[in-house]
Amino acid sequence: MFTFTPLLGAQSSCAASQSILELDGGIKILIDVGWDDGFDVEQLKALERHIPTLSIILLTHATKAHLGAFAHFCKNVPLFAKIPVYATTPVVSLGKTLLQDTYGTAPLASSIIPKATLDESVYTLPVFKANEQPNLLLQPPTADEIAGYFSHIHPLNYSQPHQPIPSPFSPPLNGLTITAYSAGYTLGGTIWHIQHGLESIVYAVDWNQAREHVVSGAAWLGGQGTGGAEVIEHLRRPTALICSSRGAERVAITGGRKKRDDALLDLVRRTLDQDGTVLIPCESSARILELAVVLEKAWKADPDSPDGRSLRKSGLYLASSTCSAAVRHAKSMLEWMDEDMIREFEMANAAHDVSNGKDQVEDPITGKKSRKSYTQPFDFTHLRLVEHKSRLIKALSKEGGKVILASDSSLEWGFSKEVVSQIAQNSTSLVLLVERAAECSSTERGLGRLLWDLYLERSKFNSKAETGIDTAEVVHLSGEQFQTKRVKVESLGPNDMMLYQQYLARQKQLQNTVQTDAGAPMESAADAVDDRSSTTTESSEDSDVEHQGKALNAAATLSHARHRLGLSDAELGINVLLRKKGVYDYDVRGKRGREKIFPFVAKRRRNDDFGDLIRPEDYLRAEERDQLEEENATAKDQKQQTTVGQKRKWGDSKISANGMTRAGQDDARSKRRKTNGISEHAKGSTEDRDFDESESDYSPDEDEPAVPEGPRKAVISQEEIRFHASVAFVDFAGRHDKRSLHMLIPLIRPRKLILVGGEEQETQTLAKDCRKLLGSENGDSTESQTIVFTPVIGDTVDASVDTNAWIVKLSQPLVKRLQWQNVRGLGVVAVTGRLEAGQVVLDPADLSQSVKEDETADSDDKAAVSATPILGVLPSNLASATRAVAAPLHVGDLRLADLRKLMQSSGYLAEFRGEGTLLINGSIAVRKSGTGRVEIESNITAPNVRQRNMATFYDIRRKIYEGLAVVAGG
């Protein structure tokens, strides 16, 4: 069984992606935890309901659309942090810097507490009116917390089959295997192959077959340097292919990567010649590296000209609060990049090792010598990194032309929002879009989307995209006005603070009512007690942040188990012995099943792969224990914080307007002074230091006002931006286009095709095209109508493999007659027998109970019992009538690489020639087609070589048969 449910990103203008894959046995896989630029917590409610039943989580790309909500769930839903997460190393590193930049520059990323939740919490104080929104913010995760969340992700390499570890509340995975393959698009981007039983699922969302400067192409045809003409074996003919439809109507410009780069640089040069500013909005960790490398190479290759028109006369900036960390991580991940980038790194090392006056450097690939000195990739000499807003404003105030790569592409937060507000009224400036901007939310399009729609309306982009010619057209604006939001964060006032405390108290009450720290799925009242008792509770600090996380965890569980609160003794059943105090007797007469068994819950032991967890404080000496108790007592006296529901005296502590005690304010001030004191010292050696993966890569700006700590709220105001700047577009999205989709999907030949990750029009267009492509191949277009699915958000699709497989029991006489053949660790045999109904042995107590029930109910319905059928030996009187001679059936999968090793070990000369062809002894060719058919060809007509070739021919055929299992029934 395999069902697929898109939670976000299906036939929607929202770029966020969240998908649930449910396999046989209750296994649930969450792929991607995306979020849009609106940061609306209401979008995440559908996923919250699935968290208690998730087995593992897979991440595909280090973009906000694929992991933007990861830190939010780790912070606010503690149960989420217990689910194993798998991703490639670049996705882990760059995803960490992305979310640190997001939470550092986007106040709304903290998430506004929904008004409906506040309405349930407020029971004494009418703080706001019906149409007002207090905009109270949840506590955002700190940079150190984000680094800790990503340090718990399990990193994987490409083409590495891995059997994941399930979550504590997940059923067994039963041999589930996941494998990551290169997807292109971003550094470390992943195509996931999921194998479970007969299900072979390929999840490919946002991939790119073309090679780029930094990122190599997708691994459909074997990856870089292979030149394959067929899809690799593991990704070919899956039972289900989940593919994105974004860009299905886009036609790549003629000329490929070089034409695209030239179009970008041409727009940049024309703007810089007028001393204008070019803003290129882009995400801070993924696609921005590709643009940075292109511009750095252009600045480096441009010679100085006498007229001063050189690019080097203009400034080049990369503006992001974590750009230095992203560049540092990129330097350590060269093995994940394109082979040209690896070659450049090797040549730079060779140039560095030249000594004794030898300035000749030899290219290890081409063998050519050069006197040119090479710098290592991402050692930017012209691109300047800007991590603070004050330095960005200083760079904008400089005279002359400049190019600024800034986050984010939506123009609603980040440094790009600051830059666009500064250059919008300058007619010589240019906002250069490099991808189609997505809508911020279902109610707001955002400034980036507004500019994109305006560009489509006034340019000839649509007609040019159909023909694939140059799309670098400039649209000049003349005073158009755009509405945009300006968000300011403030500390809570007295009324807001009381409202916030009531909200926390209400969530704490829900937590105490449900009492489900593990948050396991509760199918019944009895299961609720078992799941609750089988989970050990963890200690927590008395802080608002911890209360908030546990409260949201309880609220998520309560949302789908609210009807189980306030259960009566009859509804609790046998679990009343555990649930209620003072109850020691329960009448089991007339009960069945678990209602007759005394409830017992085995508590789990907390251990890992290295053994049981120990408490170091249990092994302290007496004097060490006394010293620790004194320190704890002293710390307890100094800590004067008020917990939820706890009374305090008027003189104990004084809460300020921002919700912090005086001691907490002093600690915060000293911490900021300490941080600011080391920031300038550490700035010069940022790229030479070795950082721990669990450390934060974000440093605050000492010139900017401090962000309020403690409970906060967002003050949202509307402002108008009058645009006199120009808008242009060059496609640097790095996604698949129409040609790639139409070429590869027929080669992959999936049995079921599910299209997600695109808008409605392009999804339906691609579905129509795929039905024609797959139908023309099968010769029946009507049959292919059933294999293409286009689900909408929340729609569940049943894409199980179409097989006639049944579970039966083999009788002992039949087992003794079977002759099993081993095929790669699997036993294969063909049988002919008689199928009989299984026998059911009833317990006498159950039998007496069923007799009582027959007196008041229909006996036929009560007697219906399902059992596994039994396959037994065919009787002798039927064996002769049903005996048939079956043709031998070859079971297995021959790999040419294994055959090559086998023939070489047997003394033959075997080598690969062309695609899928193995040449043996220079005269016999062995080919394997895409359907698995093996063909052996040889020239045996020549008299002088006929005898020798025939012997070799039959020897090769015998070796092939030995690698397969020959089975036949009869």
Automatic annotation (TrEMBL):
Predominant subcellular localization, coarse grouping: nucleus
Coiled coil residues, start to end: none
Protein localization: Nucleus
Keywords annotated in UniProt: mRNA processing, Nucleus, RNA-binding
Positions of the UniProt region annotated as Disordered: 517-549, 625-711
CDD domains reported in the protein's UniProt record: CPSF2-like_MBL-fold
Range of residues in the leader sequence: none
GO cellular-component term (any): mRNA cleavage and polyadenylation specificity factor complex
One of the GO biological process terms: mRNA processing
Biased composition (Acidic residues): 689-706
Domain Beta-Casp: start-end pairs: 288-451
Nucleus is among the record's keywords: yes
A Pfam short name: CPSF100_C
Name of the protein described by the UniProt record: Cleavage and polyadenylation specificity factor subunit 2
UniProt lineage: Eukaryota, Fungi, Dikarya, Ascomycota, Pezizomycotina
